[in-house]
Design a protein that fits this description.
153 residues; alpha+beta; Nuclear Transport Factor 2, Chain: A; 4 helices; 7 strands; 38% strand; globular
Length: 153
Amino acid sequence: MPREAGTETLEDEARAIAQHLLDETAAAYEANDFSAFAPHFMLPGDVHTFGTARLISDLADLYDLFSRVRMFFDNIGMTSLERDCISAEFTNAETIKATHITRLLNGTTLIYPPSPAFTLFRKVEGRWKIASSQYATTEPGLDDAIGRTRKSP
């Protein structure tokens, strides 16, 4: 597990890693830049909301997810994606579990209420990547964008 360096704690280090990846992927979404987005994801991976779950098995799946979520953002008029890491911790030297709050904005106007999320980060070949994301939202537009909606029994 990474060691404490100076006054930075392990939690601070985990939070900084998580926030960096959240910032990088938010910037890629805002810029509609898949090539900046893709390197931050472990494949296979997965993404969930309360209404949907999707396995991302390869780069083509990740591109489809990126494009559909980006289209959702365009449809709702999102101009800014803000994500703030609330807590993060190492579970071992190659895994961080973290929570964050997501805000979708049009200018300075909040489009939807802020929503919490849980993300699992894994270190792969020396690089931290997003392995799994779970968003605590029931927004049908996001469910449609993520795709592969679960059917009720």
